[in-house]
Design a protein that fits this description.
globular, Rossmann fold, three-stranded antiparallel sheet, 17% strand, 32% helix, 3 domains, alpha/beta, single chain
Length: 442
């Protein structure tokens, strides 16, 4: 079950530009994680009169809900060696087809994978590719670190490790944003600040980006959650957001926020049953379910897709490894798969062989559609449990090229030579042959 805790600053106030709390008659000062330049303030409490004044000034008031990593459904710490370990999830990248893309040199190069989580601990399987780390509690860039749970470290390895563990996108750059404290606890406000930072990275670096959110909190009514609007804004900017569905199954309508946001890719957890084939995979009992009934909290049409989430071996604290279970482990598999597609798309687009850039594919919803349309559909599993089905990134890459590819643009030199007629080409060929002949006789 998702761990709940008390949030001291209970409300988030979003104000119009150049408006302050004082302008609204609110006497208390803003709390930590307020972002004045974005008109967002967190406060401990508000009276009914305060709320009325804020709304009169054109502002909005949201509940600052608790956020956390879903409690792992199972955990086994393995230490420094994983050789010979027997586990149900044999190999995430092989099961989902990523190894086929790796063999062709498609490894997520040129993309950014942002892990918004409890942090990322140093680890030899990815240390050389951590290109940024921001701690929202410190409000600054810091040395990469993780909390007591090691959660973000495990997630980072699934998405992008390249060592003893090889993740889905082993050539993607990794950016860490710490939004949960040492015990894996945060709030809507801390996650919003983390997503702000991810967007800043995107604007500064100018590369295709996927944000992974293996965290969640209570799902409130649609329109009451500022995370939904933030995820929507990121999608509009061309940033794909992937989120864990939650570990509160098997009951219906248990998708957590922000996975229940329309513009987030919510990921369910599959159990491989110890085989590499997907035909016998089942949905893990703990994986949160959507609902066929619209209860106003965005549970319909969720989750979007599923991936391996049972006994997944990945990087952990103290440069070790661990096997964890949860939708938190499934989400970075999809995030890494998306990075593979975006890296491939941008390479083809740059070389004139794709009709859309990576950013356009995200912004227009094409990457999500390609992932879901090519997923392996277990027909006997309800859509409210598996979404579109089990991730198959190899199929997704093929559909990407089929749907948006085009022939390579003709070489301008060759085009001008062809326009001049065949004699020009023949003449050039004779000159070259003559030059080779002279070299042979010298």
């Amino acid at each position: 079950m998702t761990r709940l805790h008390t949030v001291a600053d209970r409300f988030i106030v979003q104000l119009p530009p150049n408006t302050t709390l004082k302008d609204c008659g609110v006497q208390q000062g803003p709390g930590a994680l307020s972002t004045r330049d974005k008109g967002r303030f967190v406060v401990r409490d508000l009276s009914a009169a305060d709320k009325a004044n804020i709304e009169k000034m054109g502002g909005q008031v949201f509940e600052n809900r608790p956020m956390s990593n879903p409690s792992p459904a199972a955990m086994k710490r393995l230490g420094a060696e994983v050789t010979g370990i027997t586990r149900k999830t044999l190999n995430t990248r092989a099961t989902h087809g990523a190894d086929k893309l790796h063999a062709r040199g498609i490894r997520g190069q040129g993309t950014d994978l942002v892990i918004v989580d409890s942090g990322i601990a140093p680890h030899p399987d990815y240390d050389d590719r951590i290109e940024g780390f921001f701690d929202v509690f410190a409000g600054t860039e810091t040395v990469p670190r993780d909390g007591q749970t090691g959660h973000g470290t495990h997630v980072a390895g699934i998405g992008g490790a390249d060592g003893t563990v090889r993740g889905m996108a082993p050539a993607a750059a990794i950016l860490g944003v710490r939004v949960l404290d040492d015990r894996g606890r945060g709030s809507t406000a801390s996650v919003l600040s983390g997503l702000d930072k991810a967007q800043e990275y995107f604007l500064a670096r100018g590369r295709p980006m996927v944000v992974n959110l293996s965290l969640g909190g209570p799902a409130g009514p649609v329109g009451s959650d500022p995370l939904h609007e933030k995820v929507k804004a990121l999608r509009a900017a061309g940033i794909l957001v992937v989120a864990a569905a939650g570990n509160d199954g098997p009951g219906a309508g248990t998708i957590s926020s922000p996975g229940n946001a329309e513009d987030a890719v919510a990921v369910a957890a599959f159990d491989t049953q110890g085989t590499p084939e997907q035909t016998d995979d089942t949905i893990a009992p703990f994986s949160s379910r959507g609902s066929a009934r619209d209860d106003g909290t965005g549970q319909t049409d969720k989750p979007d897709i599923g991936a391996n989430g049972v006994e997944v071996v990945s990087t952990f604290l103290d440069e070790g490894f661990a096997a964890l279970s949860g939708t938190s482990m499934a989400a970075p598999a999809v995030a890494g798969a998306a990075a593979l597609l975006l890296g491939r798309a941008q390479d083809l687009f740059t070389n004139g062989r794709l009709r859309k850039s990576a950013v356009e594919l995200v912004r227009d919803g094409d990457i999500q559609r390609i992932l879901t349309e090519t997923a392996f559909d277990q027909t006997d599993i309800p859509k409210t449990s598996e979404g579109a089905g089990n991730l198959r990134v190899d199929r997704a890459e093929a559909l990407l090229v089929e749907r948006f590819g085009r022939e390579r643009a003709p070489d301008p030199c060759l085009k001008s030579a062809q326009a001049a007629g065949p004699m020009t080409i023949i003449g050039a060929l004779n000159i070259n042959l003559g030059a080779r002949g002279r070299r042979r006789s010298s």
